[in-house]
Amino acid sequence: MMNTKINGKKQNKGIMSIIENSLFGVFLAFVFLVVIMSVLSPSFLSSQNIFNILQQIAGIGIISVGMTFVILLGGIDLSVGSIVAFTGLVMALAMKANVPVGLAILIGLVLGGLIGCLNGVLIAKLKIQPFIATLGTMTIARGLAYTITNGQPVYSFSKSFKGISGFIGFVPKPAIVMLIIFALGYYVLTYTKFGRYVYATGGNKVASKLSGINVFKLEILVYTISGICCSIAAILLTSRLDSAVPVAGNGNELDAIAAVAIGGTSMTGGEGRIQGTLIGALIMGVIANGMNLLNIQQGPQLFTKGAIIILAVTIDLIRKNGKKKLTA
């Protein structure tokens, strides 16, 4: 009887070790999806299609970097898509008013950072729940995006601006920018005091305050980072499409949250790795691209994204409950 229990415990530990190694599991899921999509659509693994996927996920990937910081802190940011639309339109209008491209980009980056900072102040200073605060700024930013152009697109920019989304050799520039942003995010979260504070505060805010961490300042900085990431995504999107529209970024919050959740970051904060977010973004890109190649309509695509988020959160809960049982 005792041997049965011991073997049972060993088996449970073996199962939990697989579940806990979320990064490896996510990578296996990515490989599995690539294999499935390549079987279902022979054109999936063509070099042109691979570069298309990298081009398409660059914006979401960059937004997901900021979202990873936010979720690790124990928050959420629903305003990301609206920030993309609003900052993209402001940059577009600036360039149409003959503002130099570099200055227009700087204006967009500062504006995104300010909106993110506003989110941080609402959450850290006024103690508004992140869901409510960012839902409010999401609506405000989207409303401003429609207002400043009367709902009309702004298009046709200079060659220098359109060149931002070009290629270096065969590699799309947006993909290179995305990888650089991920590398910076990895460095900050892994090797800096700021990164350690993000993990600590997400794990236990009260204990972090008692240990001397300036949680107020930390929350504002993290949401500011999220806003700047949205502005970078807006630059790449506007350049690639050669237009800025009020509906830009619609649903980006869902895609970013999905990428972070799939990547193994706990939705309750304090646990996760940004490498997982990168793989999660790739998975979202593969699914979207594969469904488009298979001519699957938008409805089933949205259903799949929602189901993936629920599955990722469920796996996170199973992993956490398993840890508690093993340590009990």
TrEMBL record:
<keyword id="KW-0813">Transport</keyword>
<feature type="transmembrane region" description="Helical">
    <location>
        <begin position="78"/>
        <end position="95"/>
    </location>
</feature>
<dbReference type="Pfam" id="PF02653">
    <property type="entry name" value="BPD_transp_2"/>
</dbReference>
<feature type="transmembrane region" description="Helical">
    <location>
        <begin position="220"/>
        <end position="237"/>
    </location>
</feature>
<feature type="transmembrane region" description="Helical">
    <location>
        <begin position="276"/>
        <end position="296"/>
    </location>
</feature>
<keyword id="KW-0997">Cell inner membrane</keyword>
<feature type="transmembrane region" description="Helical">
    <location>
        <begin position="101"/>
        <end position="124"/>
    </location>
</feature>
<feature type="transmembrane region" description="Helical">
    <location>
        <begin position="53"/>
        <end position="73"/>
    </location>
</feature>
<protein>
    <submittedName>
        <fullName>Ribose ABC transporter permease</fullName>
    </submittedName>
</protein>
<feature type="transmembrane region" description="Helical">
    <location>
        <begin position="167"/>
        <end position="189"/>
    </location>
</feature>
<keyword id="KW-1003">Cell membrane</keyword>
<dbReference type="InterPro" id="IPR001851">
    <property type="entry name" value="ABC_transp_permease"/>
</dbReference>
<keyword id="KW-0472">Membrane</keyword>
<keyword id="KW-1133">Transmembrane helix</keyword>
<feature type="transmembrane region" description="Helical">
    <location>
        <begin position="21"/>
        <end position="41"/>
    </location>
</feature>
<keyword id="KW-0812">Transmembrane</keyword>
